[in-house]
Structure formats: structure tokens, C-alpha cells
Amino acid sequence: MLPNPERWRDLRPGVRVVIWLGTLCALAALWAGGFLLGPYQAHRSADAELQGQQAALRAQRRQLREQEQALARDSAEQTVRLVPFSALNFQSAEAQLVSWKPDEKGGELVLETSWSPLPAMFQHLAEQDMTPASFAIEPEGRLLHFTLHLESFRER
Quick one: 24 and 59 in the same domain? Predict the structure, then answer.
């Protein structure tokens, strides 16, 4: 509006209507702009949050890939070390194979041995992908009667 009220009154009514309409349109545009900028700013913050989540997911995927590759290397090394099971592998100067009774899960291995090779036999079984389900040690003179009930790791 004009600073002098008499000048405002002296304007033609059409000009006053145009000035009022222009002022109202400018106020409506500012008001609508506030409503339009609010969702835009919310969209920008949601987009920034989404980008942060995507970066975290990429880092997780990279870490999982590295772990998967490490597991693949470990399993490849382990499969290379596995030896097919044979009861004859337990025959040595310190241990004599008495009997081997295979069954669908593994079998029963009976040996006559001294104390010293017993711990190494369990390691040897693990290398051959076998695990003892149970075992019994009975003294028989100077030697031990060692009975193993074996199962394959893969059968479990």
C-alpha cells in the first residue's frame, strides 16, 4: 500500500483491486511454498538416510564376501587334508587291528594297543572324517583292548 492513505483513496477502484489481488497472490504463493518445501526437505532427509543404509549394506556385503572366501579357502584346505577311511591305516608297530565291522553309519573298530598311540588315533580319525560315537578301553595283559564305535561326520 501507499504510505499516504489519501493517495490510496485517490487510486481508481480497479487499480486497488489489482494491488489487493497481487498482494493476496504473493501471500498465497509464500504460504504454498512453505507447504511444498516441507515435503521436499523431508524427502531429502529420507534420501540421505537411505543412502546411509545402502552404504552400511554394501559394507556388510563386502564383509560377508570376505568371510565366505575365507571359509571357502578353509574348507578347500580341509577337504585336501581328508583321507578316505580305512581300518588298515590303524595297523602299526604299536597297534594291531583285531577286527573291523562296518555298518551303515560307520562301524566298530577293535585294536590291541599300548597307551602311547591312543591320543594320535583320535586325530587320525578326524583326518579321515570319522568321529567316535563311543569307545571302551579294557586292559588285556600288557596291552589294551581298544574298542571304537565310529560314525562318519557326514552321516550325522
Answer: yes
Per cent of the chain over pLDDT 70 is 91
**Bridge pairing between strands 143-152 and 95-102:** unpaired
Note the pTM of the prediction, 2 decimals: 0.47
Cα separation, 121 vs 144, in Å, equals 14
Question: Is the domain of 5 the same as that of 71?
Answer: yes
In whole angstroms, give the CA distance from residue 94 to residue 89: 12
- Strand-by-strand arrangement of the 106-113 sheet: 95-102, 106-113, 143-152, 130-140
pLDDT single digits (tens) 126-146: 888 888 999 999 998 888 999
State the Cα–Cα distance between residues 78 and 126, nearest whole angstrom: 11
Which of 13, 32, 14, 12 minimizes the C-alpha distance to 24? 32
How much is the pLDDT for 118? 87
